[in-house]
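Lecture notes, part 5. Sequence design as translation. It can be helpful to think of inverse folding as translation between two languages: the language of shapes and the language of residues. The source text, in C-alpha cells, appears below.
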C-alpha cells in the first residue's frame, strides 16, 4: 500500500515524521511511502535516520507548509503547493491511497475534502477519535470531533455508520452500541437536531441504544458516541484540558508533605499505568472518515511512535477495505445522499 506522508506539518517535523517512516517501513513489509515536503530541508534528517529514496520510499517536493496559526483554507488558496495539499493531490491522482499528517487539522480536512470529495452516498466526512472508557476494549469512539460544526440529522446518521464500522474493524466489537450525545437520556431530550437524528437512528439496522450523556463516554455504557463536530470538538478539548489539569493537581497534592511524596514514589508504576489509559500513541491519530481515500490526522505534538502508528492505522484501513464497507452500509441503512435521507425527511415531518 502506498501512503503519502506529510513530512512538514506539525510541531516537531520533519524529524519525527522521518523517524516514524523509518519505523513503519521496518514494521510493515509491503508498505510504500511518498514522503512529501521541502526536499532541501528533508536531506539532513534522511541522512540522520539512514534513509534514502528506494522502491519503497519516494520523495515528493512541496515548497510550503500550512502553519498552525494560519486559516484552514490556506491549503486551498494561498498555499496550493503546501505539503498537505500535495499529499491530497497524490491520492487524487492515484499515486497514493492514503494521507497521514500531524499538521494543521483544519487544513488537512479542507484539502482532502475538497481535493478528494466524499464517498458515493456520503454527504460529509467526519473525524473520529478514541476516548478512554471502561468498556471491554478500554475505548469508546466519538464521531464527529471537529470536521463539521453544523450538521443535519442525516449527517449524524452517516456518522453513526462510520463509527460503527471503525469500532468493528479496529476494536473488534461485533455489534457496537451506538449512542446519540444529548442533554439527557430520555428520548424527548435534546434540540431539533438530536431529536430528528434520534428518529432516524432508531429506524436503522444498528445497535442504537438511544440518547447518552457526557459521562456515558467514559462509563462503558456505549461503544460509539455520535454528535455534531461543534459539540464533539468542545467535548474533546475540554477532556484534554481536564486530563492535564488533573495530573497537575495530583502532583501539587503529593508535594505537600513527605508522607504523600513517599506514597507517590511507591505508586509511580500505578500512575504510569493511569497515564497510559489516555495515551493516544497506539492509534496515532483521528481518521477523517467518508472521503475517497484514507486520511489519518495526528496531534501536532505527536511522537515518532504516534506518527508511526498513524501510518500503520492508515495501512490497516486500506487493507480492510473500510471505504467500500462505508458505501455498502450507508446504502443498506437508507441514509445515502442525495436521494437517501428518506428517513431524515420523514423524521423532519414529525
Amino acid at each position: 500500500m502506498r501512503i503519502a506522508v506529510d513530512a512538514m506539518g506539525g510541531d516537531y517535523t520533519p524529524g519525527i515524521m522521518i523517524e516514524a517512516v523509518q519505523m513503519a517501513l521496518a514494521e510493515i513489509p509491503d508498505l510504500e511511502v511518498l514522503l512529501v515536503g521541502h526536499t532541501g530541508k528533508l536531506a539532513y534528517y534522511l541522512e540522520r535516520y539512514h534513509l534514502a529514496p528506494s522502491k519503497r520510499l519516494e520523495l515528493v517536493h512541496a515548497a510550503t507548509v500550512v502553519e498552525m496559526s494560519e486559516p484552514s483554507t490556506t491549503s486551498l488558496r494561498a498555499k496550493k503547493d503546501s505539503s498537505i495539499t500535495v499529499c491530497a493531490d497524490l491520492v487524487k491522482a492515484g499515486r497514493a491511497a492514503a494521507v497521514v499528517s500531524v499538521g494543521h487539522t483544519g487544513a488537512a480536512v479542507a484539502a482532502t475534502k475538497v481535493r478528494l470529495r466524499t464517498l458515493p452516498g456520503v454527504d460529509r466526512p467526519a473525524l473520529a477519535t478514541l476516548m478512554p472508557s471502561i468498556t471491554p476494549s478500554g475505548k469508546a469512539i466519538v464521531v464527529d470531533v471537529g470536521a463539521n460544526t453544523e450538521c443535519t440529522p442525516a449527517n449524524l446518521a452517516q456518522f453513526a455508520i462510520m463509527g460503527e464500522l471503525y469500532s468493528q474493524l479496529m476494536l473488534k466489537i461485533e455489534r457496537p452500541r451506538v449512542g446519540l450525545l444529548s442533554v439527557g437520556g430520555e428520548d424527548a431530550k435534546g434540540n431539533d437536531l438530536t431529536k430528528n437524528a434520534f428518529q432516524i437512528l432508531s429506524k436503522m439496522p444498528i445497535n442504537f441504544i438511544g440518547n447518552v450523556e457526557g459521562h456515558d463516554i467514559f462509563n462503558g455504557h456505549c461503544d460509539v458516541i455520535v454528535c455534531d463536530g461543534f459539540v464533539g470538538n468542545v467535548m474533546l478539548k475540554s477532556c484534554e484540558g481536564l486530563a492535564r489539569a488533573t495530573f497537575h493537581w495530583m502532583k501539587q497534592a503529593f508535594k505537600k508533605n513527605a508522607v504523600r511524596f513517599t506514597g507517590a514514589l511507591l505508586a509511580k508504576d500505578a500512575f504510569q499505568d493511569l497515564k497510559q489509559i489516555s495515551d493516544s500513541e497506539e492509534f496515532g491519530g483521528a481518521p477523517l472518515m467518508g472521503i475517497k481515500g484514507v486520511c489519518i490526522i495526528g496531534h501536532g505534538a505527536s511522537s515518532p511512535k504516534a506518527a508511526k502508528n498513524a501510518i500503520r492505522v492508515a495501512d490497516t484501513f486500506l487493507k480492510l477495505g473500510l471505504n467500500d464497507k462505508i458505501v455498502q452500509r450507508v446504502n443498506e441503512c437508507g441514509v445515502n445522499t442525495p436521494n437517501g435521507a428518506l428517513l431524515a425527511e420523514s423524521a423532519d415531518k414529525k
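The translated text above is only one of many valid answers, since several sequences can fold into similar shapes. Residues 344-350 have pLDDT under 50 and may be disordered.
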